[in-house]
Input
Amino acid sequence: MVTGFTQKESAFAVTQDGFYGEFGGAFIPEMLYANVEEIRRKYMEIMGDTQFQTEFRDLLKHYVGRPSPLYRADNLSKLLGFTVYLKREDLNHTGAHKINNTIGQILLARRLGKKRIIAETGAGQHGVATATVCALAGLECVVYMGAVDIERQAPNVARMKMLGAKVIPAESGSKTLKDATNEAIRDWINHAENTHYIIGSAIGPHPYPDMVPRFQSVISEEIQWQLQEQTGRDYPDYVIACVGGGSNAAGAFYHYLDDQRVKLVLAEAAGKGIDSGHSAATSILGSKGIIHGCMTLLMQNEDGQIMEPYSLSAGLDYPGIGPLHAHLIRTGRAEVHPATDDEAMDAVIQLARTEGIIPALETAHALAVLRLNAGPDAVAVLCLSGRGDKDLNTYLTYIEQHKIEL
Amino acid sequence: MQTIRESILKKGRDVLNIYFTAGYPGPEDTVEIIRLLEAHGADLIELGMPYSDPLADGQTIQRSSEKALKNGMNIRKLFSQVAQAVNTTSIPVIMMGYYNQMLQYGAESFVLDASAAGIRGMIIPDLPMEIFEQEYQSLFESCGMEISFLVTPLTSEERIRKAADLSSAFLYVVSQSAITGQQGAFSEDQIRYFQRIESMHLSTPVLIGFGIHNAETRAIACRHAHGVIIGSAFIRALEAEGSLEDKVENFMQSIR
Output
């Protein structure tokens, strides 16, 4: 079986020149052209190769621990009044969905003959997943991470270092994911010939917004057969995922993009509230423009200066959104609901107490919008994209500050 | 009035294009710096529109952009400063910025307003050549706005020819695969790359930029092209203490 190739022609597939409707493309300086063009020319052929697929599948199974369980969360379902399944990406090796993509891209980098790997990271999950596959492949690894994020995701910084990666703080701008991405792109310009850039989100110049979802599409592929096994039907009524750049959402939606029976729901980080001036709710606060090489929705001022987003969650603290997602939102295929820091924190505690699972703060935003207006027969699948170990400091500080009794 | 292209071809060699960020170091310094640069021998001015996320730029230009934005610089102010500067300046002013800035302003008004302000050329490093051809070339031509595209050591010969054909002002030869602000001598590989472009006998004039930071790198680059573009080194000079007059004069001396 070939990841991302099992689908018949999708109405949401990328065009030849990298667009999803009005979004996408490759708006990059010439200094990046050769690199991006090389990947664009080769990625489909490499990913379609049988040997590649065998290696990819093999690592996902024996190294990552896939398939990840699809768990019917009965306690949560009882609370909500409809059936909720959790797709347990948090149980993957390294604790999140991010590794699905880094496994794929490290195999690609090897076939491109690259010796050095760079990555950006927000919450540190993608950084850890990249450092992990670099250790596995014996390749040099440099991870750019916003100085603010280094503070709030200390456990992941330590893990990356343990794994042999060099973590470089991004000190420009808001010192978060956007700035880490800028620094990674500049590094790539400076090391164009020997370096592969493993982007972790469904963002960046074409073909990244197509390639990353293809690697992540193993999520929806598994949901299909797991649901079939458990319910006798291979599709749910809802798929819900959080969105920063959009990699776990893209992976969870992938095989359902053209299936109109399935409602696609995105949860965005509203930070302290949509109108608070401290938010990362791109689809509401954003407008069409260019960020990190693609045309998409982003938070910017009238002069096109990119605004500094805010979310308690380092993984959703990004002023843009993947171009595929922008297209899904603009065409009405997906709906977006904002969730504030507080709502996400309530959801963290609720899931811990009802199901015995401490989710990542990013994932908690998806849990926070789960109060769907759904009937008792409805089936919802929520992508539990990551586990909360990395967020314990944030959680404990929040609990203390808000005088929440445990 | 001469076009940028004509003025480069007329001088023929040692053309000096100096970049600085509009609104830096002070919000109202733009006009004065343009005047001083012309008085001290610059042939072209490349005025940077400060941007929040300048992907192709190193720390020096990032710093100047951040400062300029804090100084309240924006595109309308930049246009009005240029309109003021061109009253007393005869050398062409080119504008360098990122495509998102042009899009948010409204691409057509952006080009028309820039032209009305007296800006003669543009460099937009993340505007793909294909999109320029499809969407903007006729607009640029209709108001006499010239444009320059970038090529790097990794650009194929076919693509270099395409960039040269589309560049109505000059071809911007990026000296190495790197962001702006590198310091050091040119390697043999870089010289071979300059020679490779020379041997293509392009009809478009060629300026070399990125990493030109002193008299020596300038002189070497000028042997292989019509001239050079200097940016980060000049911003670093502006960062120093002293009057604008002294800083510009000393810098222009230092690269002679």
Summary: Chain A touches chain B at residues 17, 25-31, 33-35, 172-173, 178, 182, 185-186, 189-190, 192-193, 287-293, 300, 302-306 (CB under 8 Å). Chain A is about 40% helix and 15% strand.
